[in-house]
Amino acid sequence: MKKLITLAAVALVALNSCNLDINDDPNYPSGPQVTPEKMLPSAENAIADVLGDQMFTYAGFFSQYFEQRPEQNQYNNLAELNIDESSNLFDRCYRMLYAGALKDLQVIMEKSPNKANHYVCTVLRVWAYQLIVDNFSDAPYSEALMGQANPTPKWEDGKTVLMGVLDELDKAEANLGDASMNLDDPLMGKKLSQWKGFANALRLRIYMRFIDGGIDVASYTQKVKDLVAANAFFKGDVKFDVYTNAEKQYNPWYGAIFALRANNFAAAYPIVEYYKANNDQRISYAIAKMSTGNYVGQLPGSKVSMKEWRNNLGWKNENVSRIGIGVMAAKPVYVFSASELNFLLAEVQLRFNNDAAKAKEAYEAGVTADFAFRGMEGKAAAFLKTDAVKFDSKTTDEQLHLVYMQKWAAFFMCNHMEAWSEIRRTDVPKTSTKTAKQIFDGDAYTPGELIVPAVNHIQVGGLAKRLPYPQDARKYNKVNTPPEKKLSDPVFWDVK
Hints:
This protein is mainly alpha-helical. Helix content is 48%, strand content 3%. The chain has a two-stranded antiparallel ribbon. The protein has a two-stranded antiparallel ribbon with strand order 2-3.
């Protein structure tokens, strides 16, 4: 496994050593020595790296898990939504996904005749493009990765992109036959049953985006019902589990923080208050207690304002709960957790099958899986009996809201990118009608509701709906990169 980690790391170092046109071949070793066997771990690692590092950070702010600690400045712009194309927020991710992962997958598919390898590469393409579309809606797709044959590929709308890769997936699956993998595969260990289960989970995730985006609702609702009825999903978690508690082998998010020797993350007020309101023991996972024994969340975007609100008494790191980054040192990157899958199943049973019993079973399985993820096995059963989170004695709408809220609680320190996407898809947690200042002053606040940052640079108020296009895209493809979008412009499936 260490060999695979090293191999992937070498490829990524080479990739990140230069600014690449995504349409050019990556500037790392090529030729006969670069075989599909060596490239698949690199591709898997590249996607996991962007999900588990940079996306984990900015989506952690957008999902209101993270805030900037009062006496530091590293994440002021994220906390205050002061982001535009010049921020270069997605540029590294863009390079790693296109010039790294997607290009590697293309080369594998060109060099390897193995149908199982093709299928696995196609599943990874679906995952990579889903992440790209969820960030800025549209993307280069049908003309991408053509090198100098087409250095300025057209951008296509997100619906077209996702439908395209899903069609690729259907065809690759139909062509699979009885083939088996012959490539190194740190993500799934060459288990095609797991790859098929992951593919079905990705279908479910994307179909739900389509349904709530108003796209061919009847057709995709039936597809979702069929998927759930077949129940051919992965077992356990889909996770990139190659990291150790040793320098240069850390989880990518922890490794980036370790390299800087600075922890500038505070726990955000909404997640802290939601855990507290439910007497949820998961609050102790990665959220530090104050010297008083309490947990105190930082109000979003309020670092600058707190001094004024406190009559110039100041606001210091010691006044707010920090994020305990150490829990992530050797943590896998969670691609699709058992918890997320079960919450999606619960949603389908409630919305489309009118089956509260199966919904309850899936909901409780989702909560239980998340407690296990945090090393709290055996504590979920008692928690699920408490009035605030028990499934019974609630209306269907209340049960659905509970599913969404507990999914948000479970994504904390697990998969922040998916948390942000699900917030946008479901509008849960909802955004509070109270300002940060009003909440500070003691106005009634519903625990868990999101809060518009006290200092907010977003062009049209509210919260982040998308990322701006990467500056690299505009630099290398001025002809076809779409006009600049605002942070408040929703992606195509976010229509609520």
